[in-house]
Amino acid sequence: MKQYGILTDVTKCIGCNRCVKACKAGNQTGADRLWRWKKRIDDLSASRWTTILSTDNGEYVRKQCRHCVDPACVSACIVGALQKTPEGPVIYDDSICIGCRYCMMSCPYDIPRYSWEDAVPYIKKCTLCYERIKKGKIPYCVEACPTQATIFGERDELLAEAKRRLKAEPNKYVQKVWGEEEIGGTHVMYISNVDVDDLLAWKKDLGNAPLPHKTWVILNKMPAVFLGVGAVLGGVWWVIDRRDHLQQEKEAAVEDTESSEEKDESEEKSNDEKS
Ligand code: SF4
Ligand code: SF4
Ligand code: SF4
After folding, report:
1. How far is ligand 2, taken at its centre, from the CA of residue 18, in Å?
2. Least distant ligand from the CA of 147
3. CA nearest ligand 1 atom 4, residue
4. One domain, residues 142 and 266
5. Last residue of a domain, one of 220, 239, 255
6. Which of 70, 207, 245, 260 sits CB 3.0–4.6 Å from 184 for a disulfide?
7. Whose CA is nearest to atom 8 of ligand 2?
8. Which domain covers residue 268, as residue numbers?
9. Distances from the Cα of 226 to the Cαs of 100, 108, 169, 222, in angstroms?
């Protein structure tokens, strides 16, 4: 099975935001919302799965899910809503998510977001455009980039291309491919003239060992420490119950509309026959 990924070259990004707009439009993530506790709309959110951050020195860097080779979020999800696909993307299933947010707590890069604006919130994040990849297409964000600052391909080939660039211009780049080895490697990788972890305020020195086993050690204790098992189960029941209730209301509304349309049609027909 081919393994795919994205390589972003920070030195080529001009901060045009076309990738962000293309992702929002293609994935229909909806309008950005400025929450009271936020000053700017430039971080990830349920409606912004990728974003561009800038420095005072004029560098631009794109933030998105790293699609870890061995993802902590998948390991942390107690109902299996998050899954690692054979092709590399880490995807999720809304219908299974119970809203516990363990994935948010476990992600070393602070990626998953909660859709607070929805009546029934879900976790949202970049999917590496998995549905498009399966059809042989490339992600919306990559397609939109005018400078090829962000490119898509097989992970091995992207890694080779990254190393080729580092070797060809040693004075231009920090001699590192972000995502090659840290926490077992990631499918979204970076090369840059400055430290990417600094640019994105990501934790440094995470080590090269995959994180899932550490995740379980922490999460096994978490309910007792922060929430209490009863509160967690209560929350789970509330989310599932509320979602089912809303779904039933939606289905009932559709049925009402359909039966009223059928009634209208039959009345029209009978009037036509009478006249
Ligand atoms: S970066 Fe975070 S959300 Fe993305 S795959 Fe890795 S652990 Fe999961
Ligand atoms: S890969 Fe797809 S979902 Fe992820 S940031 Fe790009 S367009 Fe958005
Ligand atoms: S489209 Fe390309 S150049 Fe423009 S902000 Fe995104 S990554 Fe940078």
Report:
1. 12
2. 3
3. 65
4. no
5. 220
6. 70
7. 23
8. 228-274
9. 12, 19, 49, 6
**Do residue 175 and residue 60 come from a single domain?**
yes
Residue 232 sits in the same domain as residue 215: no
Identify whether residues 193 and 267 lie together within a single domain.
Answer: no
The pTM of the full predicted model, rounded to 2 decimals, is: 0.80
Chain position carrying tokens 């978490």: 222
Residue that is last in its domain, among 220, 237, 261:
220
Contact call for residues 62 and 150 (beta carbons, < 8 A) = yes
Determine whether the shortest distance from the Cβ of 101 to ligand 3 is under 6 A.
Answer: no
Q: Of 97-111, 116-130, 160-174, 212-226, which gets the smallest average pLDDT?
A: 212-226
Q: How many domains does the chain have?
A: 2
| Ligand nearest to the backbone CA of 82 | 1
Predicted local distance difference test score (pLDDT) of residue 43: 84
Give the ligand 1 atom nearest the CA of 126.
4
CATH code for position 57:
3.30.70.20
Q: What's the average model confidence in pLDDT over 5-9?
A: 98
Distance 67 CA to ligand 1 centre (A): 5
- Residues with beta carbon inside 6 Å of ligand 1? 65-68, 71-73, 90, 107, 109, 111-112, 125
